[in-house]
Amino acid sequence: MDPHKPQGAGPPAITGFATDFAAQDLRTVRHAVATYLHDARVERDLAEDVVVAVNELLANAIRHGGGRGRLDLATDDTTITCSVTDYGGAAVIPTITEPRPDVPGGRGLWLVDRLCDTLDIDPHPDGLTVTVNIHLTSPWPTTRR
């Protein structure tokens, strides 16, 4: 221990969870994410929002991204970061717009964008990676966006 370094100083502790998934794994992965967030002591309402967002990202990767993907989830003292990578080949980056009430579907990324503080979509040679961040102490008092 360094006597010149104040106790508690330094980078925040980071924990993580990662898994590959396919359609048959959705329920298991949702439960694993909920358990991980519970163990990380994430507040219940926020954890439920994160599980919904992760589920939407997983479902999009399965439906539009080749039927399988990888989830990487991490928390530190201030932020939850979730990345979902699909392997659906070269893809067009989707535009996130408010869905029309008379058109079914098309609400997944819009919902994720509302539940999370940031959303980034990055292409890679085999598909897309969608990364979201949820701040544990959000500047929004009652709603995300």
From TrEMBL:
Keywords: Kinase, Serine/threonine-protein kinase, Transferase. Pfam families: HATPase_c_2. InterPro entries: Anti-sigma-factor_SerPK (IPR050267), HATPase_C_sf (IPR036890), HATPase_dom (IPR003594). Residues 24-132 form the Histidine kinase/HSP90-like ATPase domain. This is Histidine kinase/HSP90-like ATPase domain-containing protein. It comes from Asanoa siamensis.
